[in-house]
Amino acid sequence: MASFQLPVKTLLRPVLAESNVSAFAVSRHVHHQRRSCHHHHSHSCHPLIKQNNNKRKNQTNHFSTTTPQTTDKLQSGLEFNKSHWAPSYAEKFASLGNGQQPQILWIGCSDSRCPETTILGLQPGDVFVHRNIANIIHEGDLSSSCVIDFAVGALKVSQIVICGHTSCGGVNAALGDSKLGVLDTWLLPLRKLRAQNLSTLEKLDSKNAIVKLAELNVLDGIAKIKEKSVVLEAMEQRGLKVSGLIYDVATGLLRTVDGGEESQDEIKARLTAFKTS
Ligand SMILES: [Zn+2]
């Protein structure tokens, strides 16, 4: 597998093109153009960046006459941070310097189109975050386990949200059969869900199959989060809620994923098996 390539998004207007914009107004200027991939799968097409490959290939001849020059986004971001963003939050940073009290733990995908705080219209200090490829909860993953443990046990968040999204490259990869190296190991829980729900997924076109598997993955993540004793204790003692969402990258809308009510027997079995003290 080739190393990760960064998506090219030359159509985006430079963030700094306008002054006097608030931090959140800026995000509204960043239009993610809807695009479709016209070429079929090939060996050069990494499943996680499938949608961008066509763009890259045709970039020089097709866009050279129609798009503004590319901007160094890190450089412009650094300038914006200093001149606009930090000053606009001056008061907020006085209190943030003393600590955080986020209500929400967000577990989402690393995808650049899913910036949780922006999507929710919230601010620094509001959301404690863990993001990885395809928002997968692995039982043995030290990183997500530590984040959950700290957010629940120390920060006492009142909500854990696990959020999947449409057009997820990780989910798409798990629905395909290309060898990806270490990513294959990471995506194993998704492949397991694919196997368990094969007949359902095979009836769907690829776009809907991605959404379906993303939903199943969110529900699987919720189930695994509820196998952690620190979570079960907080649910019991202070009403911690664990819920699921799907974010539509083409509309910007979030919707709830509901696995249905657990029976009393299921709840009892879960608490008996996983709650330790
Ligand atoms: Zn994703």
Automatic annotation (TrEMBL):
Biological process (GO), any one: cellular response to carbon dioxide
InterPro entries named among the record's database cross-references: Carbonic_anhydrase, Carbonic_anhydrase_sf
Protein's UniProt keywords contain Nucleus: no
Cofactor stoichiometry and binding remark: Binds 1 zinc ion per subunit.
One Pfam family this sequence matches: Pro_CA
Keywords carried by this UniProt record: Lyase, Metal-binding, Zinc
Catalytic class of the enzyme: lyase
Catalysed reaction, written as an equation: hydrogencarbonate + H(+) = CO2 + H2O
GO cellular component, one term: cytoplasm
Residues annotated as transmembrane: none
Cofactor: Zn(2+)
EC numbers for this chain: 4.2.1.1
Binding positions (Zn(2+)): 109, 111, 165, 168
Record GO terms (molecular function): carbonate dehydratase activity; zinc ion binding
Domain of life assignment: Eukaryota
Annotated family: Belongs to the beta-class carbonic anhydrase family.
UniProt function note: Reversible hydration of carbon dioxide.
Protein name per its UniProtKB record: Carbonic anhydrase
Species, as recorded: Talaromyces pinophilus (Penicillium pinophilum)
